[in-house]
UniProtKB/TrEMBL annotation:
Protein name: oxoglutarate dehydrogenase (succinyl-transferring)
Limits of the Dehydrogenase E1 component domain: 1-137
Domain of life (superkingdom): Eukaryota
Gene name linked to the record: Ogdh
Species whose genome carries this gene: Neodrepanis coruscans (wattled asity)
InterPro entries: 2oxoglutarate_DH_E1, DH_E1, THDP-binding
Gene Ontology process terms (BP): glycolytic process; tricarboxylic acid cycle
GO cellular component: mitochondrion; nucleus; oxoglutarate dehydrogenase complex
Record-listed E.C. numbers: 1.2.4.2
Keywords: Calcium, Glycolysis, Magnesium, Mitochondrion, Nucleus, Oxidoreductase, Thiamine pyrophosphate, Transit peptide
Length: 192
């Protein structure tokens, strides 16, 4: 599904987001993203194609997002039937771990040790990120904001030009927009 709220039958004329690559006659490799070894194989083929022929190639990971269109939303609001099915699916890591364990490539303690090592790396990076005071972003991303931050990483100013509305009107709009529209109205539990 390409549109996260739009039904696929109404969204576009093709089921594949990669069909745009047909315009430049690029080969398109569709691969099941639930199969990590197939994904690696297809990516190697794509890299070899590009290296050999010096032309574009597209890899289409045929997959789903477990937590909605940006992996942070509650997708049950817009696609409840699809996400009921997705919740029944085993995550790729779990599937692949079970396969490797069944083949004797790794055992359960080795798998758990690797997961713990990765979790530790993430936790340590998260802890270090709290000590950062200055944004260290690539020049091309940071360049539109010269002088935005002071040397200790704080914004130089939080002022903004007048919107033309007084604060009371803005507060009223905010209250109305964030309040329940009628009495005896049950708000969805995921948003209350």
């Amino acid at each position: 599904q390409i549109g996260f709220t739009t039904d696929p039958r109404m969204a576009r004329s093709s089921p594949y987001p990669t069909d745009v690559a047909r315009v430049v006659n690029a080969p398109i490799f569709h691969v099941n993203a639930d199969d990590p070894e197939a994904v690696v194989y297809v990516c190697n083929v794509a890299a070899e194609w590009r290296s050999t022929f010096h032309k574009d190639v597209v890899v289409d990971l045929v997959c789903y997002r477990r937590n909605g269109h940006n992996e942070m939303d509650e997708p049950m609001f817009t696609q409840p039937l699809m996400y009921k099915q997705i919740r029944k699916q085993k995550p790729v890591l779990q599937k692949y771990a079970e396969l490797l364990i069944s083949q004797g490539v790794v055992n359960q303690p080795e798998y758990e040790e690797e997961i713990a090592k990765y979790d530790k790396i993430c936790e340590e990076a998260h802890a270090r990120s709290k000590d950062e005071k200055i944004l260290h972003i690539k020049h091309w991303l940071d360049s539109p904001w010269p002088g935005f931050f002071t040397l200790d990483g704080q914004p130089r100013s939080m002022t903004c030009p007048s919107t033309g509305l007084n604060e009371e009107d803005l507060a009223h709009i905010g209250q109305v927009a964030s309040s329940v529209p009628v009495e005896d109205f049950t708000i969805h539990g995921g948003r209350s």
